[in-house]
Amino acid sequence: MDNFSNPKVWLRNAKGHLLKGEDSSYRDLRDIPIELLCFDLQQCVEKSMKAVLVKNKIRFNRSHDITYLIDLLINNKINLPEYIKNEAPAMTQYASETRYPGDWEPITDEEYKEAVKIAEKVYSWAEKQIKE
């Protein structure tokens, strides 16, 4: 099985992004923008969902759009908790808008903490799906 079709590899990558994104010690480093931590949290959500898609042999386009991934999961009858359907789409903004320097509102501590919670929930859900 190649890495692209191995859900455990996708999930391991998701966990790496989660650990980086939620690591508060990075917040102490003034040179690490909070936007980059949120990018890692978005990547955790994206790769967690893609791990579940891969496990279920559902093809997907290369996309950072969390709503697209949610729609694929739902359309393929994957049981998706309501909190993921409702909360996870907000993570898409961290995939590109804040990844590069630009003209956008700075991310607040509250938004960062919410992104951590969402990423943790999605990763936990995906981990259970992969183990089934």
What can you see in these coordinates?
By secondary structure, the chain is an all-alpha fold. The protein has a single domain, classed as Four Helix Bundle (Hemerythrin (Met), subunit A), CATH 1.20.120. The protein contains 6 helices and no strands. It has helices spanning 7-22, 34-55, 66-75, 82-87, 93-96, 109-131. The longest helix is centred in the C-terminal third of the chain and has 23 residues, at 109-131. The radius of gyration is 14 Å and the shape is globular. The protein starts with 6 loop residues before the first helix and ends with a helix. The relative contact order is 0.19.
Short description:
The chain is mainly α and 132 residues long. The protein contains six helices and no strands.
Task: Furnish the topology, listing elements before pairings.
Blueprint: H1 7-22, H2 34-55, H3 66-75, H4 82-87, H5 93-96, H6 109-131
**Oligomeric state of the chains?**
single chain
- Count of DSSP H/I helices: 6
- The appropriate CATH architecture is Up-down Bundle
- Low-pLDDT stretches are none
Shape: globular
Q: Provide the domain count.
A: 1
Mean pLDDT: 90
Q: Could you give the order of the helices and strands?
A: HHHHHH
In angstroms, what separates the terminal alpha carbons?
Answer: 19 Å
Radius of gyration: 14 Å
- Assign the structural class, choosing from mainly alpha, mainly beta, alpha/beta, alpha+beta, or little secondary structure: mainly alpha
What does the largest sheet look like? Answer: none
Give the CATH class: Mainly Alpha
Report the count of strand segments: 0
Helix content: 55-70%
CATH superfamily: Nucleotidyltransferases  domain 2
How much beta, percentage-wise? under 5%
Reported by name, the CATH topology is: Four Helix Bundle (Hemerythrin (Met), subunit A)
